[in-house]
């Protein structure tokens, strides 16, 4: 996958799981038995202790809708699992897909008030494209970044404003291409559709 993350953490603080052992050796630290316990720990630390306070602060400063914020949040496990299916074999990708399904379909998140705020915000539309076995990722709430001056008209590959066939073309065009690289015909098509939505059509 063309995305890398370096974690500089104390290995003794890393929670390990007997049901899903790590693929590389790490130091001794706390251990849980089940994948459900591991997910509950991760979701609580990530969403309840980090994302919720961040979103509360954002809403004190702006008028952004909570569903938009949580759609952006839901997009990350969706993007990771899609990248796993696109760049890894099915066996290695399975865990990423299972984790995405678990968190996005959970009824609730640990220590987050109310029902799971990410549930139902991302869906996958069926496609005949064999390289996308889960389908075409689709946001139900647009991120509206196509309205920003530096992205004017540029629709994302998971935007419901862009027809599914155009999104598949955009995904194929971007396959293996480093982020920030100039786009091709599919990206130009996405920009044209976005500009039309904004009333800038030729």
Q: What are the segments in which pLDDT stays under 50 over at least 5 consecutive residues?
A: none
The helix count comes to 5
How many strands appear in the DSSP assignment? 4
Amino- and carboxy-terminal Cα gap: 38 Å
Helix content: 40-55%
Radius of gyration: 19 Å
Largest beta sheet: strand ordering: 1-2
The largest sheet is:
2 strands, parallel
Overall average pLDDT: 92
In percent terms, what proportion of residues is strand? 5-15%
**What sequence of helices (H) and strands (E) makes up the elements?**
EEHHHEEHH
Derived structural class: mainly alpha
Can you walk through the features of this model?
This protein is mainly alpha-helical and 202 residues long. It has helices at 35-61, 66-87, 90-105, 164-174, 185-197, and strands at 16-17, 31-32, 122-125, 136-139. Strands 1-2 form a two-stranded parallel ribbon. Helix 2 runs antiparallel to helix 3 (90-105) and helix 4 packs across helix 5 (185-197). The protein is globular. The N and C termini lie far apart (38 Å).
